[in-house]
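Hi R.,

As promised on Friday, here is the backbone we talked about, encoded as structure tokens. Could you run it through your design pipeline when you get a chance and send me back a sequence?
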């Protein structure tokens, strides 16, 4: 479905608005900026087949919203800066924001990269949560980008007592550090350790004598470096770890 202009600016479609800029402006910058935004709109329409987006314009800026309501929160702002480049801004979610109304900014250096930025911004802003089409586009993008993702592992069992560790019936903490600077801390249990902790609770009385368990961040078959490395590699191909596991691990 196409991106449509917010009904509060219904005097022109988005295409008509930017085409008018191309036709009426005299400077090279204004003309090229209008053309770039027209190409950007075409790209959106080709990318999102089932999802309708709503756009508000402010000068050359395109504000992208989830609802047709100018009073509703904006999530993404895009504008062309000539030479086929686009500036992006999107709002950080309250969970990840270091302060109220924090914004992430970035520059896409091509229309193709702008498409990637748009998919990431829509996902990370949570403005289109549970949108199946967006999730499929994001997963496809992440799979492409994470095929060569590099990370390092810190494994508690290697540091504490590497020669005396029950690889099939134990728990541990691990750290995952990605090359882009992200750091994750995870609690990991083996499948057998779940049964072990239940039996211990039955004797100690904890967790209502084993009536329930607060799960770890991750279950694995065994606590070996090879098993955990393969697991993390596979999870990163699916999505960011804080999305496929618990958000608190970041």
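Update: got your reply. Pasting your designed sequence below so it's all in one thread:
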């Amino acid at each position: 479905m196409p991106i449509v202009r917010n009904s509060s600016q219904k005097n022109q479609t988005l295409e008509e608005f930017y085409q008018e800029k191309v036709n009426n402006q005299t400077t090279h910058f204004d003309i090229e900026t209008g053309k770039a935004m027209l190409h950007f709109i075409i790209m959106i329409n080709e990318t999102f087949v089932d999802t309708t987006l709503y756009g508000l314009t402010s000068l050359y800026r395109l504000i992208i919203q989830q609802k047709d309501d100018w009073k509703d929160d904006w999530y993404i702002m895009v504008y062309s800066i000539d030479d086929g480049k686009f500036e992006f801004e999107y709002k950080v979610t309250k969970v990840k924001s270091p302060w109220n109304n924090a914004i992430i900014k970035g520059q896409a250096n091509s229309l193709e990269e702008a498409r990637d930025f748009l998919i990431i911004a829509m996902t990370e802003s949570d403005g289109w949560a549970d949108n199946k089409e967006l999730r499929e586009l994001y997963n496809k993008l992440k799979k492409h980008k994470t095929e060569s993702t590099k990370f390092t592992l810190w494994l508690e069992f290697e540091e504490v007592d590497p020669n005396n560790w029950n690889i099939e019936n134990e728990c541990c903490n691990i750290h995952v550090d990605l090359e882009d600077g992200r750091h994750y801390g995870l609690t990991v249990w083996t499948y057998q350790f779940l049964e072990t902790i239940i039996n211990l609770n039955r004797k100690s009385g904890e967790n209502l004598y084993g009536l329930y368990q607060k799960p770890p961040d991750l279950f694995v078959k065994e606590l070996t470096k090879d098993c955990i490395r393969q697991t993390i590699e596979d999870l990163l191909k699916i999505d960011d770890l804080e999305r496929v596991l618990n958000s608190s691990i970041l």
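One thing I noticed while checking it: The first strand starts at residue 4 and ends at 5.

Thanks again,
M.
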